[in-house]
Amino acid sequence: MTQTSERIQKINRLKSDVYREYGFYYYVPMAEAYTVQVPVTVGCSYDKCLFCYLNQGRKFRELTLDEISGHVENLRVINEGRNSKRFLLAGGNPFVLSTEKLLKISEVIRSKFPECEYISAFSRADDITRKTPAELRSLHEAGYDRLCIGIESGSDEVLAFQNKGVTRSMNLQAMKMLDDAGMSYSVYIMLGLGGHDMSDSHVNETASLLNMSKPFELTVVTLVIFKGAGLIERIKSHEFRRMHPLDAFKEGRKLLSLLEIPTIWDATHKTNIYPLKGRIPEHKEKLLGRIDDVIAEIESTNLKQYELKRWRKWGTE
Ligand code: SF4
User: CA-based, 20 to 30 A from 95: which of 2, 14, 130, 287?
Assistant: First the structure.
């Protein structure tokens, strides 16, 4: 065996050890795909959103500092010779950890990766609002930045229906607290989350919430129904009338047309029927024009059926 293949085997062994607790859907924020991902939590401390099955029944677990240090040492070996500047804490909402623990994790990462420029993490709004302004500032000083918040919707009606466990005003407060602490953030928005019946409130309230905030990027995804998601029962009982993916795409057009903040519109996630990405306001008109072209194309051909079939592969039907 050559030295190169021995090294590849060693790295593969280390990687499977580092990420062994994270199953098939190991999900990271779109904006932080190219980061060194540090295991600190497994699953989500909340895990009650009706539409979500990312945690696949895995029980929430905080890794101990010893476990985290061991993983960071292995990550240094895996990334040997690389200038690794961008880090992400892995898990559904690692920012739920105490400020004290997050600060210790930052020390551990920086001791092995002095070149680290920032540490990102998925966060729920209440993980942020539970911290004091002084704590958030100290976390920012320790390198925490580019957090990713799953806002999903600006509508209280939709958030309550989907059992998101936070309100529009909590989401707004969390974003304001990050602004005040100097921390940047991207947010997830989910098209179709209000189904047919709450679509107007979903789009209008999401636009008005976003227009009061400063996310550097919007990750726009479309609702898909995963096997195991609580929303399935609400669909079966007709309490939730899901949207055709083309209607969700039209929802995206309306949302984009209402946005007035400078940000990045990233709708390249594969749950969307057509990938689009651009800057607002610079590319807004071009993006809207492209959406119109795609809608016209789908409506005038048999693409409608094709797209529906492709989309259903994500779902339960
Ligand atoms: S959407 Fe986010 S907060 Fe809700 S259960 Fe899933 S991981 Fe947890």
Answer: 14
